Amino acid sequence: MSTRTTCPYCGVGCGVVATVAENGVSVAGDSAHPANYGRLCVKGAALGETTGLAGRLLAPQVDDQTVSWQTALDTAGERLNAIISEFGPQAVAFYASGQLLTEDYYAANKLMKGFIGAANIDTNSRLCMSSAVTGYKRAFGADVVPCSYEDIEKSDLLVLVGSNAAWTHPVLYQRIVQAKHDNPALKVVVIDPRVTATCAIADLHLPLAPGSDTALFVGLLNMIAAGTGSLVDFEEGDAALAAAHEWPPEVVATFCALPRDVVTTFYDWFITAPRAMTLFTMGINQSSSGSDKCNAIINVHLASGKFARPGCGPFSLTGQPNAMGGREVGGLATQLAAHMNFEAADLARVARFWGTERLAQTPGLMAVDLFAAIGRGEVKAVWIMGTNPAVSLPDSHAVCAALAACPLVIVSEVVADTDTSRYAHIRFPALAWGEKNGTVTNSERRISRQRAFLPPPGEAKADWWIIAQIAQRLGFGPAFAWQHPHEIFSEHAALSGFENNGMRAFDISELARLTLEEWDRLEPHQWSVTPEALRRGWRSSGHLRTVPVSPVRAMAQPTTLYPLLLNSGRIRDQWHTMTRTGTVARLMQHIAEPVVEISPADAARFSLCEGDLVHISSPRGVMVARARIHHGQREGELFTPMHWNHCFARQGKVNVLVAPVCDPHSGQPESKQTAVRIAAW
Ligand code: SF4
Asked: What are the 4Fe-4S Mo/W bis-MGD-type domain coordinates in residue numbering (predicted)?
């Protein structure tokens, strides 16, 4: 039997057809899904090999003892109640994941913000795209991505910045390759310090100095103004434009460590292209100035008019399958459900809709601050759902120490043994991909169904069910009396339209009326952002605007003791902390162990040969990796994957090195730059 569902890995959001047979699950691309039209990358194609039960958490546990659901839920409820009674709601936090389905996310957000009464629910999406959220909100007044995949074929110039899409968004990359094949006039610019696989299709590669992207785009804004004399969407005395005047190409070239003619070629191409898109992701977002980088990109699209029309726009590529769904339901500590904000009218509206008098009135702790508060003993209970912060957060030694000292750690997990679940007092077994049922939203705002095609294994339960059971034990049962995820989706969709009257950009309330059968059959549905809404509605309400930004260097700079800059990121065949993809033999064949890419000059400087085991050290820790000499690596810089956990390489965790330095607006950590030193093992 075959089931149409959605890949649980990256934000491309490919449709897949899963077929269950006697010898296991096979997976093929869904030719009818508009995100991929049948294409799959190697991770998606291997999904069937991840559906076995080896290593699964299949029963609840309390204090390392297997117990019944009744005991686990009662114990969690009693311990949470005790902490809330003694220390108040701010002593409790949830840390969720872009792996959750929208319905799970909605339930968690409603319980924490609406009924426990604190906004301490943040998510691993904070590490992924929160700078893009801030950038869009500062420019448009709303967290809205104004692009679609179909814009790619309509564009004349695609600018990929901070994105190795060939490895991290492979099906989207394949679509770009096809578009370029079909239209040889389509130009592709890749802006990345490294020569990556994505550079294979680049007509122009700008290997700029790490973190200098803001200067590059501020300089482009300056050239747009100089070239046209009449700017779109700019007002007299625009502060962004005034700041840009200080960035002529020669200044940009020096700041970015690029040849001047490379900079001016990029500027010429952007200005003369009738239609241009900028696709950006972690290389932009994961920065201590990530929000400003996003706004520098958005500014040039607003100024040049390459915006809100086909083939144009600033397009944030989300990393996770449901980072966008999380944004829609308010799964960040800094926003309310349905893209609403911590503002009086929104607070009152959400409180009325949920029928609560306990709604949190102020934003909660963002991811890095949240774990720091656990470390200080201010947060005394944390419930971690579907994510592995002991590997993925910066300063992971400190994160582990915080979890070890926390009085109550609850983990909802699919996998029995993760770096994080080792610290858990209570473990809830959650349903995995193929077993759970709900919706996800991809990078282009397209809501797709993830459908169950396997029976629940062991005692595993849906995340929303677990959350609703805890809500009952905290005394909030009537507001969480759902029997099916369809009811949660309907409530979420209804909230998006509640007292909206067209005033808010996110409104999917027409989906609130779907029957269970209609919801079950729901075809991929892209919620609309009309050019009219972007051009008239928001601008007339004073929202659409450029944001003045000033280029700055990254916090981390080389020193005598730590003379190299370490970049971290994804590799082609692994996902996040490898708890799923690390179990698939053929995915491990691509890169089987932690590696560090180093330029030939630096290899000679530090007396390293290809294949040497090396120590990489920062003031915070040490990791071990195998040296790979890479001609595409800039001198003075290293690159290492972010994936390895304790099961696969105990000393391969890059985040033991990374400082918890964050963008002041978005709270997103600077995962792309750490000052380190390297030495042979
Ligand atoms: Fe899955 Fe992303 Fe690969 Fe598509 S591109 S199959 S969503 S990992």
From this structure: 1-55
124 falls within a domain: yes
Structure tokens given for 623: 């990791």
Q: Do 156 and 239 belong together in one domain?
A: yes
Domain assignment present for 201? yes
**Boundary of a domain, candidates 316, 332, 357:** 316
Q: Is residue 525 part of a domain?
A: no
Ligand 1 centroid from CA 172, angstroms: 9
User: Do 145 and 105 belong together in one domain?
Assistant: no
Q: Looking at residue 212, what DSSP letter applies?
A: -
To test the pocket of ligand 1, the residue of 33, 43, 172, 178 to mutate (highest count of ligand atoms within 8 Å of its CB) is: 43
User: Token digits for 249?
Assistant: 């190409």
Interval 158-192: pLDDT, tens: 999 999 999 999 999 999 999 999 999 999 999 99
Cβ of 545 closer than 6 Å to ligand 1, yes or no, is no
- Does 69 lie in the same domain as 45? no
| 593 burial via Cβ count (<10 Å: 0-12, 13-18, 19+) | middle
Closest atom of ligand 1 to CA, residue 44: 6
The band of 544, judged by pLDDT with boundaries at 50, 70 and 90, is: low
Any domain includes 541: no
The verdict on the CB of residue 9 being under 6 Å from ligand 1 is yes
Of 273, 297, 316, the domain-final residue: 316
User: Same structural domain for residues 170 and 236?
Assistant: yes
The verdict on the CB of residue 14 being under 6 Å from ligand 1 is: yes
If asked whether residues 432 and 289 sit together in one domain, one would say no
State the distance from the centre of ligand 1 to the C-alpha of 647, rounded, in angstroms.
Answer: 24
Nearest to 614 by CA among 671, 659, 566: 566
Shortest-distance Cα residue to atom 4 of ligand 1: 14
Domain that holds residue 582: 564-680
**542 pLDDT above the threshold of 60:** no
The model's pTM = 0.96
The Cα 641–Cα 679 span in angstroms is: 18
Interval between CA 264 and ligand 1 midpoint (Å): 35
Give yes or no for residue 141 CB within 6 A of ligand 1. Answer: no
